[in-house]
Design brief:
Elements (H helix, E strand, L loop, with lengths): L2 H29 L7 H5 L3 H32 L9 H10 L6 H16 L5 H32 L2
Length: 158
């Protein structure tokens, strides 16, 4: 694969991620006015607050998916790393060695936190509020990882 093709692909991925971050930041600004949640607050959320929480969670998930499914592989391709057929854990370990991830475990934890949300239900307000709070507190880690990778791209691939 040509380096030009990788750069073209990465530019599209960065654009996509930037859009998710823009919406995530917008939701975050609103959420800052009432977060963290407790069980009772969760049960009495206004429709407006639910819309912003939904936007936050959706964009968190989309950003994480785009990074995990596209960005990580393409940044390695851009620096001539072989990724074809490699397990995701090997990709994470390589990103860690390049200091693009603080640790592969950090990414796994972010993923587990998000998956926890999808396995909980509206009728479990205590668990739901705790999970939303956890993602709200940790979303900056996702953006930090993205920023490191984008900076790396600008220094090493452009």
């Amino acid at each position: 694969m040509s380096k030009d093709r990788a750069k073209e692909k990465l530019e599209k991925i960065f654009y996509e991620c930037d859009r998710h971050i823009l919406r995530l930041d917008s939701a975050n600004s609103f959420l800052n006015t009432f977060m963290p949640l407790n069980k009772d607050e969760y049960q009495s959320l206004s429709d407006e607050k639910v819309v912003y929480i939904d936007q936050f969670l959706f964009r968190f998930a989309k950003l994480q998916d785009t990074m995990g499914q596209k960005l990580f592989r393409w940044i390695l391709i851009c620096i001539d790393e072989e990724v074809e057929g490699k397990p995701f854990v090997d990709i994470l370990n390589r990103l860690e060695k390049l200091s693009l991830l603080n640790s592969a475990n950090e990414w796994r934890e972010l993923r587990e936190d998000r998956n926890e949300l999808s396995h909980n239900y509206e009728d479990e307000p205590e668990i739901m509020s705790e999970t939303i709070n956890k993602l709200f507190k940790k979303h900056y880690k996702l953006i930090e990882i993205y920023t490191k990778i984008k900076d790396f791209y600008n220094k090493k691939c452009k």
